[in-house]
Design brief:
With 469 residues, the chain is of the alpha/beta class. The chain has a single domain, classed as Alpha-Beta Barrel (TIM Barrel), CATH 3.20.20. It contains 15 helices and 15 strands. The longest helix is centred in the middle third of the chain and has 23 residues. Bound molecules: 5-hydroxymethyl-3,4-dihydroxypiperidine.
């Protein structure tokens, strides 16, 4: 891909094939949890436990996107985006996770995909974004190897239903976060606190990816591509001059990033982390012969979910790791949740992925920021900090392209304010504001700004917002 150089006005032009997208996931936006025969998911169950989600919020209504799909596709058209990443709710299609198929669930996504395509919006479909059918959890969930096999059958069903129109599939969203928050710290569904269980679950998620990728490719349009969306965190040693801190950063990078990227790209699990895990939880005997070949088989692109960096110090913290994550640096700008805003690290991450896993296309499958946006008296939502965030991160993507990283697209997290898991609804991530009482959608200033960028295929020189896009 060639990248346009800054124009006389400072405009940064992107390659014409670059995709301008938005991103959501089923449980975070759909609501309508009892509609059309949908089965229970682990997030329905977990979210009802007292104290599990801030403010007692649940996904029951979310953005009611299940019923307002047409309205939301029309919003995407107003944003001039040409790509949208969303997830299928496994329990809508297979209410018990296996066996009985719910045709109404399939029909819903069928209409959604058609409606996107009619507007010229390319779907990027995620199969698993954390809403495991509760019935499978009862049989052990991701700690049970059979869940990976059920997932492959679910993938085959989705291929038969949508594979004629969908080229790109994300099998699994953020396997590290599932392991960490869902199985190790108990902060996400299914709420387990079991270190060995968490590394077992992460292995089965990777195995599920490989098995599903095999199914997705054995049919469909013939040019099917499959990948994982990883939660990737660039690492910074607390004291860059201190060899122990540098080593700690390398180890933590192994734990968060390489443990997933290396096996998926054919290198097996990294030795340093294998030793760590064996020391922490005993023999990794759930990794069976042949698993690594399956895992390595299906990765046609790397999905990059990037939000911020991790700064680590060589110091024993909680848990079995010889490092501690430390607070960000003073003076570095932060989002409304306090995450450091470090766009240069996105550029460096994309370049690093290109260096370490050459030839693999990159998609920024998530990037965004939380602010507490509310409408002003004029009814508009003036989220200038998000406009600056977007500008800086798209500029970083542009720089990565100029350095040779094969970045094919950017999917902003999120299309609209939604259910932010254990934090409920207060964190607002959207380009579109959703009023919690009325569910009314309002395109924020950032949405108008992004619309112009998407329409022109370039980042405008100015941060000024053109309303009424
Ligand atoms: O909302 C989540 C999403 O579901 C997974 N990636 C991170 C986002 C922001 O926390």
């Amino acid at each position: 891909m060639t990248t346009g150089r800054p124009g006389a006005t400072g405009t940064l032009r992107f390659p014409s094939a670059f995709r301008w997208g938005t991103s959501t996931s089923a449980f975070q936006v759909e609501g309508a949890v009892g509609a059309d025969g949908r089965g229970e998911s682990i997030w329905d169950r977990f979210g009802r436990a007292p104290g599990a989600v801030e403010n007692g919020d649940t996904g029951d209504v979310a953005c009611d996107h299940y019923r307002r799909t047409e309205e939301d596709v029309a919003l995407m058209a107003r944003l001039h985006t040409d790509a949208h990443r969303f997830s299928l709710a496994w329990p809508r299609i297979l209410p018990e996770g296996r066996g009985r198929v719910e045709q109404r669930g399939l029909d819903h996504y069928d209409r959604f995909i058609d409606s996107l395509l009619e507007r010229g919006i390319e779907p990027l479909v995620t199969l698993y974004h954390w809403d495991l059918p509760q019935a499978l959890q009862e049989a052990g969930g991701w700690r049970n190897r059979e869940t990976a096999e059920h997932f492959a059958r679910y993938a085959a069903l989705c291929r038969d239903a949508f594979g004629d129109r969908v080229r790109d599939w994300v099998t699994v969203n953020e396997p590290w976060i599932v392991g960490l928050l869902g199985h190790q710290l108990g902060l996400h569904a299914p709420g387990e606190r079991d270190l060995r269980g968490s590394v077992t679950a992460m292995h089965h998620l990777l195995l599920a990816h490989g098995l599903a990728a095999g199914e997705l490719r054995s049919g469909g349009r013939g040019d099917t591509r499959t990948g994982i969306a990883y939660s990737l965190f660039p690492h910074t040693p607390d004291d860059g001059e201190n060899p122990a801190d540098r080593e700690a950063a390398r180890h933590s990078d192994g734990y968060v990033n390489r443990w997933f990227l290396d096996p998926v790209h054919g290198r097996g699990y990294p030795d340093d982390m294998r030793r760590h895990w064996e020391h922490a939880v005993g023999a990794l005997d759930f990794i069976r012969e042949g698993d690594l070949d399956v895992i390595a088989a299906g990765s046609d692109f790397i999905g990059v979910n990037y939000y911020t960096r991790r700064i680590v110090r060589a110091e024993r913290g909680e848990g079995p790791w010889p490092w501690r994550v430390v607070e960000g640096r003073p003076g570095v700008p932060r989002t409304g949740l306090g995450w450091e805003i470090v766009p240069d690290d996105l550029r460096d991450l994309l370049v690093r992925l290109h260096t370490d896993y050459p030839g693999v296309p990159l998609l920024v499958t998530e990037n965004g920021a939380i602010y507490r946006d509310e409408p002003a008296p004029d009814g508009a939502v003036h989220d200038a900090p998000r406009v600056r965030f977007l500008h800086a991160h798209l500029k970083a993507v542009h720089e990565a392209l100029a350095l040779g990283a094969p970045v094919e697209g950017y999917y902003h997290w999120s299309l609209m304010d939604n259910f932010e898991w254990a934090m409920g609804y207060w964190p607002r991530f959207g380009l579109v504001h959703v009023d919690r009482a009325t569910l009314r959608r309002t395109i924020k200033d950032s949405g108008h700004w992004y619309a112009r960028a998407a329409r022109e295929g370039a980042i405008p020189a100015s941060l000024a917002v053109e309303a009424g896009s």
